[in-house]
């Protein structure tokens, strides 16, 4: 199998599985228990927290484990709205955010909030100035993702943070950095008040994520009520095996961060070179330094994307027609680009990981060319 869908979920390295297995089978202590096995597990939880914090480059005491990126996004937006409930009921976000952000914003709209959605240009870009222009005296929160999960477009979170200090210093900034984890940011210097990440995008297990909460957030309101785990802010028995896996994946990625980022950039460059003379093909999301190295969005104009996914899948090549979270529904991200129908209906995403090879890229490009040459366009 040729797996080119790392932006959906990344394969689990054996070392990560081993770390999880050891906790599952040998260390059953509950970190909240007061006997020695529980106290020892609590120490291990703090060690795992430190490993994940090291990858984000943030203080460990500001990092809270969650069940996934979706939980982190919802918690951040609701905590920001609560802290700034006396500032106002206005939120600024983009039209191309992950559904976890957009659906939470819809919930907040039903609670009386006004949400401004910033549309991208046709290559997916959104300048910081356009976000800042939408900020008002009553803006409680701004939420802008670091890397778009379908296009790979990077967004100017740091300039937005710097601009907010002048535009409205009370406004809190959240960024969904799930696709940027592993080498594209430092939480210390990014300037965001909330940073959401997820383990399974870097070879960790599903079912575990984290939210960094910065010092400007005062007494963050929990999303879940319960036993008061995670220093009283995220209730629920700690998922220790998932934490161990997340920590090991973070350690592995940190050890080879520069090497992996260079490898991913080389793969994207190689793919673009192979696609230069491809008929009816459009590259989305831009081809500059403003694009993440592991995501490449393409359109084979006239050839429906699901047909491409099915054809390549039958050959053992895994690519996607947008975000896996859409579950086959039309992409709001592609719709926001306002592309011609033939282009928007043919969008697919290739996404790479540390184990991806140029030979696998070549095989995928060859399969795409066969699909183009042997199937009639339908749009």
Structure in words:
This protein has helices at residues 14-26, 36-56, 69-83, 99-110, 128-133, 157-167, 187-190, 240-255, 257-275, 305-314, 332-337, 341-344, 358-374, and strands at residues 2-3, 63-66, 90-94, 114-118, 139-143, 172-176, 194-198, 209-213, 281-284, 295-300, 317-318, 347-351. Helix 1 runs antiparallel to helix 8 (240-255). It has 379 residues and is an alpha/beta fold. Helix 6 (157-167) links the parallel strand 5 (139-143) and strand 6. The chain is 41% helix and 14% strand. It is globular, with a radius of gyration of 21 Å. The model has no long low-confidence stretch (mean pLDDT 95). The chain folds into two domains: 2-10 and 257-374, Aspartate Aminotransferase, domain 1 (Alpha-Beta Complex); 14-254, Aspartate Aminotransferase, domain 2 (3-Layer(aba) Sandwich), CATH 3.40.640. It has 13 helices and twelve strands. A seven-stranded mixed sheet has the order 2-8-7-6-5-3-4, sandwiched between helices. Strands 9-10-12 form a three-stranded antiparallel sheet. Strands 1-11 form a two-stranded parallel sheet.
């Amino acid at each position: 199998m040729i797996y080119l869908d790392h932006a959906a979920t990344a394969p689990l390295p054996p070392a990560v599985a081993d770390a999880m297995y050891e906790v599952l089978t040998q260390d059953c202590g509950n970190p909240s228990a007061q006997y020695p096995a529980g106290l020892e597990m609590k120490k291990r939880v703090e060690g795992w927290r430190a490993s994940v914090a090291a990858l984000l480059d943030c203080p460990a005491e500001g990092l809270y484990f969650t069940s996934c990126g979706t939980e982190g996004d919802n918690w951040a937006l609701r905590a920001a709205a609560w802290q700034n409930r006396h500032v106002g009921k206005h939120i600024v976000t983009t039209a191309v955010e992950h559904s976890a952000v957009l659906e939470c914003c819809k919930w907040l709209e039903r609670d009386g909030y006004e949400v401004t959605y910033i549309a991208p240009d046709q290559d997916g870009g959104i300048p910081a100035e356009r976000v800042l222009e939408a900020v008002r005296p009553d803006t409680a929160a701004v939420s802008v993702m670091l890397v778009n999960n379908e296009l790979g477009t990077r967004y100017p979170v740091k300039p937005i943070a710097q601009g907010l200090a002048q535009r409205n210093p009370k406004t809190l900034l959240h960024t969904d950095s799930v696709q940027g984890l592993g080498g594209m940011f430092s939480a210390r210097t990014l300037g965001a008040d909330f940073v959401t990440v997820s383990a399974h995008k870097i070879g960790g297990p599903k079912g575990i994520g984290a939210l960094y909460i910065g010092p400007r957030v005062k007494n963050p309101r929990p999303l879940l009520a319960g036993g008061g785990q995670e220093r009283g802010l995220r209730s629920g028995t700690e998922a220790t095996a998932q934490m161990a896996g997340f920590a090991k994946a973070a350690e592995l990625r940190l050890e080879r961060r520069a090497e992996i980022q260079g490898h991913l950039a080389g793969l994207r460059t190689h793919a673009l070179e192979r696609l230069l003379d491809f008929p009816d093909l459009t590259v989305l999301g831009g081809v500059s330094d403003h694009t993440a190295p592991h995501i490449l969005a393409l359109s084979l104009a006239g050839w429906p994307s699901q047909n491409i996914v099915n054809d390549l899948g039958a050959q053992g090549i895994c690519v996607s027609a947008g975000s896996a979270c859409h579950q086959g529904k039309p992409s709001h991200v592609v719709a926001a680009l306002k592309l011609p129908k033939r282009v928007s209906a043919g969008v697919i995403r290739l996404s790479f990981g540390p184990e991806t090879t140029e030979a696998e890229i070549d095989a995928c490009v060859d399969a795409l060319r066969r699909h183009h040459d042997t199937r009639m366009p339908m749009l």
